[in-house]
Amino acid sequence: MGESPYRFISGAYGKNHFELDKPFISVLDYLNYDYAGAGLSSLGEFVGRDVYEVADYVDKVARPKLIVWSLDGERVDRVWLDPAERMVLERLVGHYGVVRSPFASGDWVHYFASIYLIGDPGIACILTVTSQTAYSVYKYGDEATKKRFLPPLTGEGAQAGGDRYMFGATWFTEVQGGSDLGANTVEALRTGDTWRLNGNTKYFSSDAGLAGAALVTARPRGAEPGAKGIALFLVPEFDSEGRRNFSVRRLKEKSGTAAVPTGEVEFHGSEAILLGEPEKGVYYTLEGLMVSRLSNAVGALGIARKAYLEAYYYAKKRRTFGRSLIEHPLVQRDLLEMEAYIEGTMALTFSAIRHFQSTYKDTPPYTDEYHYARLLTHISKNMTADMAAHVTKLAMELHGGIGFLAEFPVERWHREALITPIWEGSSNIQALDMLEAIAKKGAHIPLLRELEDMAKDIRDNAGRSLYTDSLELSRKTLDSLGRLSVDDAQFQAKDILERLGHSLAVAILTHMANILNSRRILTVAHLYHTRFIRREPLPRLSAKEISEVIEIDRDRGGQIMRR
Ligand SMILES: Cc1cc2nc3c(=O)[nH]c(=O)nc-3n(C[C@H](O)[C@H](O)[C@H](O)COP(=O)(O)OP(=O)(O)OC[C@H]3O[C@@H](n4cnc5c(N)ncnc54)[C@H](O)[C@@H]3O)c2cc1C
Question: Where is the Acyl-CoA oxidase/dehydrogenase middle domain (predicted)?
Fold first, then answer.
């Protein structure tokens, strides 16, 4: 059959998306992460070929379909995926162990690095909600629940008779509100030892028709109103007598995220397993959202990276006015801006992941370090979502007219980017939660302490002035926040988040440049600082500096000193 014709329409297809991504490898170096041992190169090959092509095919040709009735008139409510998508998912879960690593060895970097490399938000969502489900069962399930659900959810296989793999799901949003979890109306009733759920308001239910078990928020009858009255349940697809335990009303028609089916779910006396204590359900739910928000952040980075790759390879080939696009100064400027934006927000996000990694076992009441990880998570989620929208827009623009055609991959990346500020808590909600983490939990105190600590590693003068400038901006932003009334702080919350995010991105990039002894990363930090903090025209760099930044797939022959 030969090579897929997809290679004629995509520049990024068929390449190893890990090996070519030298800036990402630098971030892993900075974290001291053993990526060779983690098998990321082999995953990079798989995502650059099979996952890349299948995700685009699913979007354009083969969207998931809900099968409601079986041949013999039985209600089944299962989703039919394109067989190629099923193959890709089985390999990601089974062979590459994407969901398994945090639970088998406590390695969250592997999980988040994998989601970044996958990039496609539909496939990433299926794996994310499965990890989130496993995470809540791991933390709050009783022994029997863990034994039954953790092996298939994490892809370790099941005991005899059970499913080998199982997808999870997280159904919190209801028709009357997603941001306002306290408005949930699905009700839980306990009869003897059994909890049962009732309600038809779960309105955005990803993995409906795929999930073998779902995390569901519901209010036990008689519990207090608002978010504090919400408990967290695990609802298996089949009840204890083997009957379907809930119904899928329909699948949504979406402008992106095609690979994941998103539906509406109804509970009619559905058997449910309570996780932990009912009064703490809202805390458990928010803990799980740390996983999905960080997934969203690396997913947004992955989307931007794929769009960058398409634009970069196209700019090398396409010629106008007698030279290739990549030789035109203004195209170089666009690519420099895109790359600096990706790398700054990537440094920020992996710093958040490092803090999540050391606090993921925290339970209420939480440590200061946990609140700090949460603060960085809110900031990373918004910063990467804004970045992905901007970078994918520029990537489309650099393709000229064909960038607007649905026939080529780059337009999809822009559509996909636009989900990232909405789900897992919209950007406004992240900004408001950031205010809460600062005002009520003092999460900015460990942040400033860490920034002051990191300053000791900055050796060169150029780096020191950049670092001092961004540290000062963080301090000033936090000081001015402390003087605002509650309403004024809410009004400015997104602007404050953005200023903090930009200053942290520059500080972490500068620190990384010093730790890795990399002139290239220092140049990127300068570009980021000029464009997003000073908001001045980008400096005209030498041809060598420009190529060092934008040619992300070029090995620098040991220029980056690995620790
Ligand atoms: C493709 C897709 C898949 C999804 N999958 C799932 C899933 O599997 N499980 C799940 O639980 N949910 C899922 N969602 C739902 C998603 O998480 C919600 O749509 C999102 O949290 C926003 O909730 P909402 O749509 O009810 O908007 P609303 O809560 O009505 O908010 C509307 C707008 O108002 C803003 N807003 C709300 N309150 C405030 C405030 N106090 N101050 C300032 N601004 C405010 C919000 O930022 C938003 O911009 C999915 C959504 C999509 C699009």
Answer: 169-268
In sequence order, what are the residues at sequence separation of 6 or more whose Cβ sits closer than 8 angstroms to the Cβ of residue 206?
Answer: 125, 126, 129, 169, 170, 257, 260, 261, 262
Q: How many Cβ atoms from other residues are within 10 Å of residue 206's Cβ?
A: 24
Please tell me if the domain spanning 170-279 has the same topology as the one spanning 283-550: no
Domain boundaries 283-550, CATH class: mainly alpha
Atom number, ligand 1, closest to the C-alpha of residue 425: 21
Of the residues 63, 129, 173, 215, which should be mutated to test ligand 1's pocket, given the most ligand atoms within 8 Å of the CB?
173
ipTM: 0.99
Question: pLDDT by residue (tens digit) across 268-318?
Answer: 999 999 999 999 999 999 999 999 999 999 999 999 999 999 999 999 999
313-331 pLDDT per residue, tens = 999 999 999 999 999 999 9
Q: What would be the CATH architecture of the domain defined by 170-279?
A: Beta Barrel (2.40)
Q: Which residue has the tokens 């070029």?
A: 554
Q: Where are the domains of the chain?
A: 5-154, 170-279, 283-550
Q: CA 278, CA 282: separation in Å to the nearest integer?
A: 9
Q: What is the CA radius of gyration of the chain?
A: 23
Q: Are 116 and 272 in contact (CB under 8 A)?
A: no
189 beta partners: 196
Question: Which atom of ligand 1 is nearest the CA belonging to 206?
Answer: 8
